[in-house]
Amino acid sequence: MEKAYKLKLVKEAIKSYPDFPKTGVLFRDVFEIFQNAQALQALKDLLVEHVALLDIDIIVGLDSKGFLLGPIISLGLAKPFIPIRKKGKLPGKVFRQNYTLEYGEDTFEIQTDAVQGKKKALIVDDLIATGGTMSAAEKLLKELGVVTVECLVIIELTSFKGRSKLEAPLHSLLQFN
């Protein structure tokens, strides 16, 4: 399959829900991709082919959809996968980073032992809007001496300008206004 066809399969598998979770929001549901084997294979190919060109040590996935995408890339490239989770979800020694949400604050955590000796990371999630969570992940890794080589998402909601909050380059497979 060529790249344009793979992107078409992925895009067609994303279902949109108007007014969810609240009025005025158009929710893009990537879970539909996982229900379509052909679209999932296309997504895997697109992600692995792109990331294979990067010089990285680890793949870091954000809670929670990054946990679906990260291992796909990890297995395809034989690179370790490390989760960044919401506060209180990881055992052992963790490092924390607070970040601001639209209506409050939250905290990300990563197990400090997981990144020891690792210097170059890819951060992956399903979507970027304002860039708050992705930026918090970058800061968390930076505090531990890990450089974010790239941030990778399936969907970029361009009207929110989240890319401008990131230090690392952002690669998005699909862009929506």
UniProtKB/TrEMBL annotation:
Cleavable signal peptide: none
Q: Which InterPro entries match?
A: Ade_phspho_trans, PRTase-like, PRTase_dom, UPRTase/APRTase
Species name: Ceratosolen solmsi marchali
Q: Please give the family membership noted in the entry.
A: Belongs to the purine/pyrimidine phosphoribosyltransferase family.
Q: What is this protein called?
A: Adenine phosphoribosyltransferase
Q: Where is the Phosphoribosyltransferase domain?
A: 32-156
EC nos: 2.4.2.7
Coiled-coil ranges from the UniProt annotation: none
PANTHER family per UniProt:
ADENINE PHOSPHORIBOSYLTRANSFERASE
Q: What does this protein do?
A: Catalyzes a salvage reaction resulting in the formation of AMP, that is energically less costly than de novo synthesis.
Of the GO CC terms on this record, one is: cytoplasm
Q: Which UniProt keywords apply?
A: Cytoplasm, Glycosyltransferase, Purine salvage, Transferase
Q: Share an example GO biological-process annotation for this protein.
A: AMP salvage
Subunit composition? Answer: Homodimer.
Query: What reaction does this catalyse?
Result: AMP + diphosphate = 5-phospho-alpha-D-ribose 1-diphosphate + adenine
Q: Which SUPFAM superfamilies match?
A: PRTase-like (SSF53271)
Tell me where it resides: Cytoplasm
Q: In which pathway does it act?
A: Purine metabolism; AMP biosynthesis via salvage pathway; AMP from adenine: step 1/1
| Gene name linked to the record | LOC105366582
Q: Name one GO molecular function term.
A: adenine binding
